Amino acid sequence: MQSEPLLQLDLPGIRKIKSGKVREIFDLGDLLLFVATDRISAFDVIMPNPIPEKGRVLTQISNFWFEKTGHIVRNHLTGRSVEEFVTDPAEREMLAGRAVVVQRLRALPVEAVVRGYVIGGGWKDYIATGAICGIPLPQGLRMADRLPEPIFTPATKAAVGEHDENVSFEVIASKIGAERAAEVRQTALALYAFAAEYARTRG
Predict the structure, then answer these.
(1) What is the pLDDT of residues 94-142, one digit of tens each?
(2) 102: alpha, beta or left, given left = phi > 0 and alpha = psi -120 to 50?
């Protein structure tokens, strides 16, 4: 296993499409290769100090939840092996545990956020307005209180170097259409409910 943190990556013979905040994305024809680096992105800013093995941990967490929630919504995983596309032993070792072969899909310009507790940016919004993303909440909530029920608080999906912006459901509906926005909200809430219940059974 690699000991030095992976900050960026090029694979000879495979075209890199883009570098995201954390992931490198490569062209596999009809498919894509996602590689999670050890870069850290916080508040939409890429930090200068990576965390060794962070990309492997992130990939394993993601794959765990994709497998657990496939009955709620299909995801982009193909089940195809990275070794089908990368033959060099050193490159395979470098990619082990941090790379997945995925379908090419068109991303929606939406960050689908569900909140079950009043914390972070939601707490600031609540203190200022009594609401989060325009959704009125009961008075007297304290920071980190559990909400009466989870709420869908979407954000715009920003490019690298820009900031995601919390918006109302109506703004998202205007961007992707009311029917698709409602589908995104329903799916996000279903994913949260399942994952929260699963987590509660494990303390």
Answers:
(1) 999 999 999 999 989 999 999 999 998 899 999 999 999 889 999 999 9
(2) beta
Closest CA to 169 of 193, 157, 147, 153: 153
| Among the listed residues 115, 111, 104, 108, the one whose alpha carbon sits nearest the alpha carbon of residue 177 | 108
49-68 burial, b at 16+ Cβ within 10 Å, e below that, comes to ebeebbbbebbeeeeeebee
pLDDT digits (tens, 9 = 90+) for 10-64: 999 999 999 999 999 999 999 999 999 999 988 778 888 999 999 999 999 999 9
SS3 192: helix
In this prediction, residue 163 carries a pLDDT of: 64
